[in-house]
Design brief:
There is one protein chain. This protein is α/β, with parallel strands linked by helices and 392 residues long. The protein has two domains: 2-192 and 371-386, Rossmann fold (3-Layer(aba) Sandwich), CATH 3.40.50.2000; 210-369, Glycogen Phosphorylase B (Rossmann fold, 3-Layer(aba) Sandwich). 40% of the residues lie in helices and 16% in strands. It has helices at 16-29, 68-77, 88-96, 135-141, 147-164, 175-181, 223-234, 253-262, 277-285, 302-309, 320-326, 338-350, 352-369, 372-386, and strands at 2-7, 41-46, 61-64, 80-84, 101-104, 118-119, 124-125, 169-172, 186-188, 210-214, 243-247, 269-273, 289-292, 314-317, 331-333.
Length: 392
């Protein structure tokens, strides 16, 4: 089967979309038929520059920043097109070429003009104004950079919904997102994890609890809530102070560092930037818990599932996607409520046996629900509905 995968972002860019697309492409490329021949001939198209990426080492072809005409020819030569996110150009070209295309929804661009389900500039969760046809609220929400830009985002949301309605399938990583999309032919396929059995198990240092955040430092990730919660905990009757390790980088780093200084938490909050696998393992091996305090924009929560697979206790905001992924194997707090977050962290620190039990349950759930092989096979079965596989 000739499969074209389109992902606007790809390695060496770092993020959840890039991780899942790479795992999917590698997994499909490894599949063999009964004669030992590859079941897929994969071409991955991206707009991300090559940077330091070693494309030649990958088991599939990578084409970066193609012209519109070259993308058209690639679509024509494919038998099925997988699009990571509702990108307009590949959807239009697939429709024009009468090629079955599958949209994997990694964001909220088809139900919210800013793609975050977040009301700006207040950074409060949106109740779903676009889908409820409260379009004046949408236009007002995104008018911060100008009304022309706000109208553009609003119109693009209609265009994406129209094109996605013509997709062979709309893949959602959570049932929560599948319900919100309100599109035809929705299929739920959970993201799969490449579980590394040799990853160090968490062994928190006694008397020196460390809470870890992993992700881009942008407003929607809610890192300021974690810093505020650490400040609250530092003023309680603890015989030790809570330390926070912030892994990742982004445009909000400077303001978060300023908040840390204002709260006099410089000795407790460390900004580690991007970490390679070995240093991330070392950081998480000393963690008491991982906190995901997102305000919006989450459709799965890869950091949640990855932390669960390591046997770490996890605390997440009560957004629908995060609570679905976590299930009963962790703790949730009210989105945007730093005081409630501090209470959940305190509960873990005050009851280490309870925290350890949560970590065990989380690991079991991750291995059962978010297996990489399951994600690969589910996509294989989905594609075969529109383009039957043949032994070669």
């Amino acid at each position: 089967m000739k499969l074209l995968i389109y992902s606007h972002f790809f390695a060496p860019s770092v993020g959840g979309v890039e991780t899942i697309v790479l795992s999917l492409a590698r997994g499909l490329a490894a599949l063999r038929d009964s004669n030992g021949s590859p079941q897929f001939e994969i071409t991955l198209v991206t707009q991300t520059p090559v940077g330091n990426s070693q494309d030649g080492a990958l088991p599939f072809r990578v084409i970066r920043k193609p012209s519109f005409m070259r993308l058209w020819r690639l679509v024509q030569k494919s038998e099925i097109v997988h699009i990571a996110g509702p990108a307009l150009a590949p959807m239009i070209l697939s429709l024009a070429a009468c090629k079955p295309f599958v949209i994997e929804h990694h964001g909220l661009q088809t139900i919210c003009p800013n793609g975050q389900l977040l009301i700006e500039p207040a950074s409060k969760p949106c109740p779903g104004h676009f889908m409820s046809k409260r379009h004046t609220e949408c236009l007002r929400c995104n008018s911060g950079s100008g009304w022309l830009g706000s109208y553009r985002l609003w119109l693009l949301t209609f265009a994406r919904r129209f094109l996605c309605a013509h997709a062979a399938a709309n893949v959602a990583p959570t049932r929560w997102l599948g319900r919100l999309l309100d599109l035809p032919r929705v299929v739920v396929i959970h993201h799969g994890l490449e579980v590394r059995e040799n990853a160090p198990r968490p062994k928190p240092r006694p008397g020196n609890p460390t809470i870890v955040f992993i992700g881009r430092l942008v407003t929607t990730k809610g890192v300021s809530l974690l810093i505020e919660a650490a400040h609250m905990l530092s003023h309680e009757r603890y015989g030790h102070k809570v330390h926070v390790a912030v892994v990742g980088d982004g445009p909000e780093r400077a303001s978060l560092e300023e908040l840390t200084r204002d709260l006099r938490l410089e000795e407790q909050v460390r900004f580690l930037g991007h970490l390679d696998a070995a240093h991330l393992d070392a950081t998480l091996a000393q963690a008491s818990a991982v906190v995901v305090p997102s305000l919006g924009g989450e459709v799965f929560g890869l950091v949640v599932a990855e932390s669960m697979s390591r046997g770490l206790p996890v605390v997440v905001s009560d957004l629908g996607a995060l609570t679905e992924v976590l299930g009963d194997s962790g703790l949730t707090f009210r989105t945007g409520d730093a005081e409630d977050l501090s209470a959940m962290i305190r509960r873990l620190l005050d009851h280490p046996q309870f925290a350890a039990a949560l970590g065990y349950d989380a690991r079991e759930r991750a291995q059962l629900a978010y297996a990489l092989d399951s994600m690969i096979v589910s996509h294989l079965l989905l594609y075969s509905q529109f383009c039957p596989l043949q032994n070669r």
